[in-house]
UniProtKB/TrEMBL annotation:
The lineage of its organism: unclassified sequences, metagenomes, ecological metagenomes. GO terms for biological process: cysteinyl-tRNA aminoacylation. It comes from freshwater metagenome. The keyword Zinc applies. This is Cysteine--tRNA ligase. It is an enzyme of class 6 (ligase). GO terms for molecular function: ATP binding; cysteine-tRNA ligase activity; metal ion binding.
Length: 454
């Protein structure tokens, strides 16, 4: 059975290609100026799911994920580099900012059981590569030097511009992101900077044939993907916000260089909302994986919670849904330990055709979870083997058992105090005590027979 994924460009399902048993993947990585929020992690998880699905069917995956540590400009009118802005705020060197958040990114991936990519190239270490691609684009007549010393890609030079996002070049209006300071230097408002002249900027700049400066964000992904993956990407992954202009521009650059379609399938994950609202730093509505851990919840409960929704649907994450996923995770781990005693241990896992087709039909994780719930309730004899099969995609460590923890003295005192508060109908005290207990990692439930904990 072959994996089929929804391709943004052709707007339909497409079979993933493999060449001599290998598939190449590129996933747009983080801009390392802050902690990745759980929305970012949802997009990185998508690449992991695709890669696991291919590996499960015996295909070797070469996955590249870049680290953007220069050139990603903020989307306001200031047009500042995100890394340099954060370096000023934290009063440390921009490279230190980048390395600090890069390390935290890797920690988050490992806590979410996201398998390592083959390589994580950094933009700041790929400057020569980008410069030679820019020079080639200029030679081909696709890029020009503006009168401000920056080099721009000529959007009209690529006939297929707009095919990925559905935008028509002549319908694009001026005033898109990143265009404010460049308007006078560009020939056309939808052209974009490949190399930016340093101007007054003194940090994170490099010499170039066009004078000192720094690379634009879009050229980074073209340069790295084409160089490392031999000028062809089978599956390209990113969040939906990257469809335009980032991926539209990347496609134009890469195709202009290779003279052919450089990416076979463009996969975009929909956005994650938190408690009904868009996640953004400015509105203070951002959830980090660390916040989940600080509540005493298993980080893989977040993974399970994300898997309850199809990657192509927008999803609203709530604390109660993560809590419910945490409880389900513990229940399933408990069941797997229980079943280990009754099932023969010869088969580590057994293929289930329903799960297999859900995986291969555009990674339908909600369907896999529905199937597991049905298997759990059934009287089959190979439940553990089937769960273990699914877990190769789900990545929930379902066979790790449930850690038994005993109550500390402090927990016991708080539980007693809450029980008394409830019997005396002091509801606000009872609520405060619940928050304290949850902060210590306990799950409290109120039943007609009194409070219970786990
Ligand atoms: P950034 O670090 O901002 O460059 O983003 C890294 C990845 O996260 C990109 O693939 C974005 O499209 C994706 N992303 C950003 N916000 C969200 C969100 N709320 N939900 C899902 N993916 C997101
Ligand atoms: Zn990218």
């Amino acid at each position: 059975m072959t994996l089929r994924l929804y391709d943004t460009k052709s707007r339909g399902l497409k079979e993933v290609a493999s060449h001599n048993g290998a598939t190449s993947m590129y996933c747009c990585g983080p801009t390392v100026y802050r902690d990745a929020h759980v929305g970012n992690l949802r997009s990185f998880l998508l690449a992991d799911l695709i890669s696991r699905a291919l590996t499960l069917s015996g295909i070797k995956v070469s996955l590249v994920q870049n680290i953007t540590d220069v050139g990603h400009m903020s989307e306001d009118f200031q047009e500042d580099d995100k890394i340099l802005t954060q370096a000023l705020i934290e009063k440390i060197d921009p490279y230190e900012i980048a390395r600090k958040y890069e390390e935290k990114f890797h920690q988050d991936l490992s806590r979410l059981n996201i398998k390592k990519a083959m390589v994580y190239p950094k933009a700041s270490e790929s400057i020569e590569l980008m410069q030679s691609m820019i020079a080639e684009l200029m030679e081909k007549g696709c890029a020009y030097l503006g009168n401000d010393g920056s080099v721009y890609f000529d959007a009209h030079s690529y006939p297929g511009y707009g095919e990925l996002s559905g935008n028509r070049i002549d319908a694009l209006k001026p005033g898109h992101k990143h265009e404010v300071s460049e308007d006078t230097a560009k020939r056309f408002h939808a052209d974009w900077a490949l190399w930016k002249a340093a101007g007054k900027r003194s940090e994170m700049i490099w010499p170039s044939p066009w004078g000192p400066g720094f690379p634009g964000w879009h050229i980074e992904c073209s340069a790295m993907s084409m160089e490392i993956l031999n000028s062809h990407v089978d599956v390209h992954v990113g969040g939906i916000d990257l469809r335009f202009p980032h991926h539209e521009n990347e496609r134009a650059q890469s195709n202009a260089i290779t003279g052919q379609e450089s990416v076979d399938i463009w996969v975009h994950g929909e956005h994650l909302l938190f408690e009904g609202r868009k996640m953004s730093k400015s509105s203070g509505n951002v959830l980090l994986l660390q916040d989940v851990i600080d509540r005493g919840l298993d980080p893989l409960a977040l993974r399970l919670c994300l898997l309850e929704n199809r990657y192509r649907s927008q999803m609203d994450l709530t604390w109660s849904s993560i809590q419910a996923a945490h409880e389900l995770l513990l229940r399933w781990r408990g069941k797997l330990s229980e079943w280990a005693g009754s099932e023969p241990s010869v088969n580590l896992w057994e293929v289930d055709s329903e799960i297999e087709s859900a995986i291969n039909n555009d990674i339908d994780t909600p369907k896999i979870l529905i199937r597991l719930r049905a298997i759990e309730k059934s009287d089959q004899k190979n439940k553990r083997a089937l769960f273990m099969y699914a877990d190769q995609i789900l990545g929930l460590n379902l066979d790790q058992g449930v850690e038994e923890k005993t109550l500390t003295e402090q927990m016991k005192e708080l539980l007693d105090a809450r029980s008394i508060a409830r019997s005396e109908k002091r509801w606000s005290d009872s609520d405060d005590l619940r928050v304290q207990l949850e902060g210590l990692g306990l799950i409290i439930k109120d039943t007609p027979e009194g409070q219970t904990w786990s």
